[in-house]
Structures are given as structure tokens and as C-alpha cells.
Specification:
This protein has 850 residues and is mainly beta. The protein is 9% helix and 46% strand. The protein is built from 11 helices and 39 strands. The protein has a 22-stranded antiparallel beta barrel. Strands 3-8-9-6-7 form a 5-stranded mixed sheet. It has a 4-stranded mixed sheet with strand order 25-26-30-29, with no helix packed on it. A hairpin with a 6-residue loop joins strand 10 (192-201) and strand 11 (208-218). The longest helix has 15 residues, at 30-44. The radius of gyration is 28 Å and the shape is globular. Mean pLDDT is 89; it is low at 1-44.
């Protein structure tokens, strides 16, 4: 009774994972292979997303839906869900985040050229809460984005991932401008697996270990409990060279300089664990109770920029390194001698030695004589729980559910200072936390009706109530307090990441309701049309109404055409409306202190900040599906216009001439703030592209071969922007920061006990930038590149499989920095590149099934 009705087109008989690379799986015997293949047939061909009607085969969908099976996800040296998806979905991208504040902890992604918070994430069809981390340094596209943390979801917990590459705000609500990703949890009631993976980079660093397991248990005769757990650790990497400024000071006799002074590389990950539980219980033939959720935690430590002991502003100098910044205990700096800083080694000068000998005078060199590079630390704690009841009552199918989810990021700094506290400053700080909490209640209903000569018209309707909050937790006092030497020009708060003070701490909430209707009908046996309408009302900015139209026409048994048109919206997150932070940014190669404030904060408002409004979008898409014997091919064009796009502004310089007016407006110590940035609806974009996905299977070399192609072309054009809040460099990053062309070609080959997967990845040209600088300094158009991944698996016995492989097996080098940037920052590669700049990564894996 719980099974869905079939569409007119029936169910595709092809065993193809549409988009995805890495077809083929390790088999222990012919019988086991046949059983696995049968399971994969049922998993891969049916998708839930894309329609509120009954689940349908991906070939029969009027919108493009990709499905990645659990086996496909495993064919990757990385166990991070983001890396798994990048190699599988044509228009899904993510860049490295070596020195990116909180984005180092939760890596932002983008689908179809839009930021991470423009893709709605579902788990078992239910909205996943977003992360508390906001990507202040998101590489252009993701600057200021606050999307969900999908790296929390382990591959071992999943049956499949469904990726809807089409605007769907009219069906699912806010955040679905680019599409929807649905992570479907395993529901086996018996059996399980244990897997141990280990690997490291060719350079000999970044050693990573992952242990994961899955266990299916019966819940009496009518239910199941499926438990998945994963534990990971990963060492840091370094692709750095010594900075010339640090090297010169060391050569002049300063023995306190580290080599390298500043590290570019992956953060160190410790105690990364996650547990997912999925359960269901059939009360009778028509009714099922279900519940699922997770508990996750991880700790990460990453690097920051190096603070030069001669010239770092508001710490060592306030005149560009001509003289040291010397504080006076008695408050009168004129009583302290002037110490020249434009020398080879300030520690050896008689002026410095005399200053140190004076108990009334001090400089930060006495605590950090070689300068310092703060280490940014964070602990991410994530949890969720959903429960509901679904079934059939008469002609209606229903699903009623409620759930909550939270994500908390606790921040800290090591090896830093609060210069305004003078020589009494601590060096390690608890700087506070962000916490995102979301609660959702849903009622979804659908049925089939007949009107006139039209049969099996799918009618769906539903209601959603959601509340979300964003809370800033106060840091320890030393991390935010303005010490006694603030008025002498010393920086306030922990340097690099100022702690959250009582004026910043607090919780902000918002709630909204949504009502939708979705109708699909076959006007003829060959022609499917659909209409969706959704109304939402938000407590903070009002209401919105959006629609979607879809159609598919079956020209022949093998060829069908499809198209869609929709409007959409993305509400500003509560975090974007209220976040406060201080970050260190690079502008033209120089470090500046930037204050991130809510748009209505007195500092932001002084420089043009206004209350945020929702983004609005209009999408068009058209394509075709071709199925013939063992060949499956889809080609889809899309065009997405977004107006009032929400993003973090460029750094707006705080002018000295504005200090008095800013003080009058309530801004404290404006002279210690170099620039301000805030969230604004300041530009419009048009993003278009083509996705091509194909699969073909055949007998080859006395075994089964499967070939998969995923190609994506993406082009973004900034139609309009406000030059007072967005500079031309940021526009360039938005338009060209990711490759316009991406492709993955995979050959999966399997025999009785042996299987192999070879994947080639093509990355086209892109605008390469380094760090968070939006100027032309150090930037260039980077060339295209190809990387090759290889994995070989052997079934040692019926239930035991051993795999070895490598990502980027030929160690394709990432784009190297220009000499000028390399000299200043001490890095080797552009960290904005589309593939891992750490180089080749080899690994081994042992999997035991029971």
C-alpha cells in the first residue's frame, strides 16, 4: 500500500548512474555481483526530488536529476563528502580554504555558478539546517555565504545522493535557486560493513585516517534501525616558502623567526566523528513511523597571516615601519624614546635596548620578538533530529514531520596578542562562538485524481513552519576588551580575530510559514506538464509568491525533450543580517583590519548599509534525454537571473576625516578600524550554462565496462553592481573565478573478483587570485589542467575487499603564483584553484561486509 504509482512512461530498465563517474564496484563473486547490481538498479533509477508527485525514474523526470549511489561515493581517495561530489556533478565546485577565517572550518561549495546558500540541502527529503559558519573569505562567489555543512554527512550512511539541477524555490522554498541536493540514508535492517582507509600526499604530509562502519538492525519484524559512524583525523599540509621579509630579518640575526613564518595548506583535523541513525517502523500496511538524526563534532586548526615585527600596524608600528609603536605605562608616550624600525633587525639597535631598559616603556617585540602568525582554531558541533509519520488514508498519501537541527562553531586563537593590554596580554584566546538553530514542521499530502479524460493527475499540497535563530556567544574578556593602551594606538582585542564582546553577543530569531501546491498531468501519453505555486511569509521582511512550470515530451521511445521555467527567492539568513566579526584582509598585498558589521550597524549605515531584502530569481531551462539500449545521455541548458543578490561588500575604507562623525554616531575607536564590510543587495547577475551527462555500458576484456561522462559549461555575467560597495576585482572573481568548462570521464571495469576505476578530470581556464585580495595584485588567468584518478579493488574473500588508489596520480601541479605574490605571502600556488593544490594523494582501503 505504501508503494508509489508508476508514471505513464514506466520505469527505465537501464542500470545507469546518470552522472556519475566511478561506475563499477568491487565484487567478491559472480553471485554477489549480480545481487549488488540488482540493488543498484532499484537505487539509481528512482529519485524523490524534482517533483512532489510519486518518485519517478530519472529518465522520466521533466527536470535534470543526477543520482550518485553509495558505491560511487566510495571510489575516491577523500572521505569528505564535498570532494566526492565535486568529481561527480558537472556544475558542482569547491575551492581550497587554507587561510580563510571560519571558511577553513566549513568549506563553502557552489552549484551552477551560485553560492552555497543558493542550493537547498535535504536529508531523507527534509530540509537540513545551515551551518553557523559564514564564509567571509569565500573566493568571490561564496563571499558571505552561509550554507549547510555537507561535509558532516559521511558516505557510509548513504544509500544515494539525488542532485536536482534546476531552480525549485516554488516547490521547496528559500535557498533552492540553483537546485536541491537530497541525501538519502541507508535503511537496511540487517548486515553492515566496516572500512578503514589511510593515505597521504606525495609530499609526505597530510596523512589522513578514516574508520567508518554501518550496521542494520531489525526493529521487531516491522521496522529497522540503521546506524552509521565515522571517525577521521588528518594532519596539516604546507605548500609554503619562507617569506622574504621574514628571511631578511632572520638573516640579520633575529633568532625568533619561524621557517616558514606563514603556512599555506590544509588545516589539521582532530577528533572528527559523526554518527547518523535512520529508523522506521510499520504500524500497519498503510502507516509508517520514522525518525533519523545525527550527532557530529570535529576540531580544526589552521593558519593566519604573518605579523612582521617591524611594521605590522597597531601592533609593532603605526607609521608603516618607520618607527616602532612604543607604549608608555604612565600614558605619556612622549616620555619614551623613538625606536627606528626601518632597520635590518630592530632587536639589535641601541634605541630598542634602551627602550626595553626603561620600565615605563614597552613594545610588542618583547613578547613576540620574531613577529607571530596566529593559529585559528575551531570546534564544530552539529546535531539534528527528525521524526514523523507517513502513509495512506483513502486516496491521500500524507507525510507529517517535525525536526530540529543545530550547528555550533566555537572559535579560538593561539599564538596571538591583545596589544591594548600591553605586556600583560595572554597569547591564547577563547574568542566566542556562532550557533545556528532551526526547527521545522511539515505537512505534505498528495493524491491522484481524474478530471474529464485526464487520468492520474498528481495533486500535491503542503504546509511548512520554520524558525531559525543565529546566536553569537561572548568570548573571554581578554579577547575583546579595549585595554589601557588602546588610546595609544594599540589594537583592541585578540589580533587576527577579535573576540565577541557583550555588545556583539546575543540571539536573533526569525520564523516563516510556507504553503505550496503542485500539479502534474499527462495531457497525452507523450506529453507531461506540471505547475507549482508556493507562498511564504517571513516575520522579518514580509511575503513572497513563486511559481514553476515544467514539461516533458516523449518524441520517441528513446528521445524525450524537457523544459522548465520558474521564479525563486533566497531570504537573507539571520546570520547575514546580524553577524559581527573582525578579520584581517589583504588589499594590494598589505594587511588591513576589517570590521564586519550588520548592515544597520552605525558604522555600516554611515557607509551606506541598509536593511537586507530577499534575492529574486528567474530561471529557464531546456534539454533532452536519450536512452537506447546501454546508452543514456542528457543535455540541459539553463539560464538563471538573480536580482538583488546578497553578498558581503568589498572593504570600504574608514577615512580619517570621518572619525569625529563616527564617534558621534556611537562607533568606538574608529581610528583602529581600517575598513568596514557588510551585507548588501548590491548586484544583479545572469548565470547560464550547459550540463551534459552520459553513461554507456558494454562487455569489454571479458568483463563489464561502464563509461560515464559529466561535462559542465558555466558562465556568469554581472549585469549591474554598486561601485561604492563592490569593486571591479570582486566582479571579475564572480564572473571568472571558477572554470567555465569542467568535465569528468570515467571508465569502470569489473571482473569476478577484481575491479578498476579510472577517472580523468578536466578543468578549464579561470581567473586565479590569492587570499582575499580583490585587486589585480598577484592575479592572472590560469591555464587549463587535467588530473587522473585511479583505484583498483580486489575481493580477497567473499566479504573482504582491499582497494588501493591515488587522486591526481600523475601529480599535476596547480597554477603557481606570480613571483611578486609569492615573495610577499610565502605561498607557492594560487589557493583559488579548482583542484587540490597539495598534489597527488595515494591511499589504501580495507572493507569488510557482514
Amino acid at each position: 500500500m505504501m508503494q508509489s504509482k508508476k508514471t505513464k512512461f514506466g520505469v527505465s530498465s537501464l542500470s545507469l548512474a546518470i552522472s556519475f563517474a566511478l561506475a563499477g564496484t568491487a565484487m567478491s563473486s559472480q553471485a554477489f555481483a549480480a545481487e549488488e547490481e540488482a540493488v543498484k538498479e532499484n537505487v539509481e533509477k528512482i529519485a524523490v526530488v524534482g517533483s512532489r508527485a510519486a518518485p519517478r525514474s530519472i529518465g522520466d523526470s521533466p527536470v535534470p536529476v543526477d543520482i550518485i549511489s553509495s558505491d560511487d561515493l566510495k571510489k575516491n581517495g577523500s572521505t569528505d563528502m564535498i570532494d566526492m561530489l565535486v568529481t561527480s556533478v558537472p556544475s558542482f565546485n569547491s575551492r581550497a580554504q587554507p587561510i580563510s577565517d571560519a571558511a577553513t572550518l566549513v568549506r563553502p561549495v557552489n552549484l551552477r555558478g551560485l553560492p552555497s546558500d543558493s542550493t537547498l540541502i535535504l536529508v531523507n527529503g527534509k530540509r537540513r539546517h545551515r551551518a553557523s559558519v559564514i564564509a567571509f573569505q569565500g573566493g568571490g562567489i561564496n563571499d558571505g555565504a552561509q550554507g549547510p555543512d555537507i561535509s558532516v554527512i559521511p558516505g557510509v550512511a548513504l544509500k544515494q545522493v539525488e542532485v536536482l539541477r534546476d531552480g525549485a524555490a516554488a516547490q521547496y522554498g528559500s535557498d533552492a535557486i540553483a537546485g536541491v541536493m537530497n541525501f538519502v540514508l541507508k535503511d537496511d535492517s540487517d548486515g553492515g560493513s566496516i572500512t578503514v582507509s589511510q593515505g597521504e600526499y606525495y609530499e609526505g604530509d597530510g596523512a589522513a585516517t578514516t574508520i567508518d562502519g554501518n550496521l542494520g538492525l531489525p526493529l521487531s519484524d516491522d521496522g529497522f534501525v540503521n546506524i552509521s559512524a565515522q571517525y577521521k583525523t588528518a594532519d596539516a599540509t604546507s605548500r609554503s616558502v619562507q617569506r622574504p621579509d621574514a628571511a631578511a630579518i632572520a638573516a640579520a640575526g633575529n633568532e625568533f623567526i619561524q621557517d616558514p613564518a606563514q603556512t599555506w595548506g590544509n588545516p589539521e583535523i582532530n577528533d572528527d566523528f559523526t554518527v547518523f541513525v535512520n529508523s522506521g517502523y510499520d504500524l500497519n500496511d498503510n502507516t509508517q513511523l520514522y525518525a533519523f538524526g545525527n550527532v557530529s563534532s570535529r576540531e580544526a586548526t589552521g593558519g593566519f597571516y604573518y605579523r612582521n615585527p617591524h611594521n605590522r600596524g597597531n601592533v609593532y608600528s603605526n607609521d608603516g615601519g618607520e618607527t616602532l609603536l612604543v607604549g608608555a605605562v604612565n600614558g605619556d608616550q612622549s616620555t619614551c624614546s623613538i625606536v627606528p624600525a626601518n632597520v635590518d633587525n630592530v632587536l639589535d639597535t641601541p634605541e630598542y635596548l634602551a627602550m626595553v631598559a626603561d620600565p615605563n616603556c614597552f613594545s610588542m617585540n618583547q613578547i613576540r620578538p620574531g613577529g607571530y602568525t596566529p593559529q585559528f582554531t575551531g570546534k564544530i558541533e552539529d546535531m539534528s533530529f527528525f521524526a514523523g509519520i507517513k502513509g495512506e488514508s483513502g486516496e491521500w498519501m500524507y507525510d507529517v514531520s517535525a525536526g530540529t537541527g543545530s550547528n555550533k562553531a566555537s572559535f579560538g586563537l593561539k599564538n596571538s596578542l591583545n596589544p591594548s593590554l600591553g605586556l600583560e596580554t595572554p597569547t591564547d584566546f577563547d574568542t566566542g562562538s556562532y550557533e545556528q538553530v532551526e526547527t521545522t514542521f511539515n505537512v505534505d499530502m498528495n493524491r491522484f485524481v481524474t478530471i474529464g479524460g485526464l487520468e492520474d493527475i498528481s495533486f500535491a499540497t503542503g504546509f511548512e513552519w520554520r524558525e531559525e535563530s543565529f546566536e553569537i556567544g561572548q568570548g573571554e574578556e581578554a579577547s575583546w576588551i579595549a585595554g589601557p593602551y588602546a588610546d595609544q594606538g594599540f589594537n583592541i582585542g585578540s589580533h587576527g580575530f577579535k573576540g565577541f564582546g557583550p555588545e556583539s553577543a546575543g540571539k536573533n530569531k526569525r520564523n516563516n510559514i510556507g504553503v505550496y501546491t503542485d500539479v502534474e498531468a499527462y495531457l497525452t501519453d507523450e506529453f507531461l506538464v506540471g505547475v507549482a505555486l508556493r507562498y511564504e511569509n517571513f516575520s522579518t521582511f514580509g511575503d513572497t509568491l513563486n511559481y514553476k512550470l515544467t514539461a516533458q515530451y516523449m518524441a520517441t521511445d528513446e528521445l524525450s525533450f524537457r523544459a522548465s521555467h520558474s521564479t525563486g527567492f533566497r531570504a537573507p539568513t539571520v546570520g547575514q543580517e546580524n553577524v559581527v566579526n573582525t578579520q584581517t584582509s589583504i588589499v594590494n598585498g598589505d594587511l588591513i583590519q576589517t570590521f564586519i558589521a550588520p548592515p544597520t550597524n552605525p558604522l555600516s549605515a554611515f557607509y551606506g548599509g541598509e536593511t537586507l531584502n530577499p534575492e529574486e530569481s528567474v530561471s529557464y531551462a531546456a534539454g533532452f534525454v536519450y536512452e537506447y539500449e546501454n546508452l543514456f545521455l542528457t543535455v540541459d541548458y539553463y539560464n538563471i537571473e538573480v536580482t538583488g543578490r546578497i553578498a558581503q561588500s568589498s572593504q570600504i575604507t574608514v577615512e580619517e576625516s570621518d572619525y569625529d562623525a563616527l564617534r558621534a554616531a556611537g562607533v568606538e575607536f574608529p581610528e583602529l578600524i581600517s575598513a568596514v564590510t557588510y551585507y548588501t543587495n548590491d548586484f544583479d547577475t545572469t548565470t547560464q550554462g550547459v550540463d551534459i551527462v552520459g553513461s554507456y555500458s558494454m562487455d569489454l576484456f571479458s568483463g563489464d565496462a561502464k563509461f560515464s561522462l559529466a561535462y559542465g559549461w558555466t558562465d556568469t555575467n554581472v549585469d549591474k553592481y554598486d561601485e561604492t560597495t563592490t569593486d571591479a576585482g570582486k566582479v571579475r572573481r564572480l564572473e571568472d573565478g571558477i572554470p567555465a568548462h569542467r568535465a569528468t570521464l570515467t571508465w569502470g571495469q569489473s571482473w569476478d573478483d577484481l575491479s578498476m576505476s579510472v577517472r580523468g578530470n578536466y578543468f578549464g581556464e579561470y581567473y586565479a587570485t590569492h587570499a582575499d585580495d580583490t585587486s589585480d595584485w598577484g592575479s592572472e588567468m590560469a591555464g587549463s589542467a587535467v588530473t587522473v584518478d585511479l583505484e583498483v579493488s580486489y575481493a580477497v574473500m567473499d566479504n573482504l575487499t582491499v582497494s588501493v588508489g591515488a587522486n591526481n596520480i600523475f601529480d599535476q601541479e596547480a597554477e603557481k603564483l606570480k613571483d611578486g605574490t609569492l615573495g610577499v605571502l610565502g605561498a607557492v600556488y594560487y589557493e583559488s584553484g579548482p583542484f587540490d593544490y597539495n598534489g597527488g594523494f595515494y591511499y589504501g582501503r580495507v572493507n569488510y561486509r557482514f
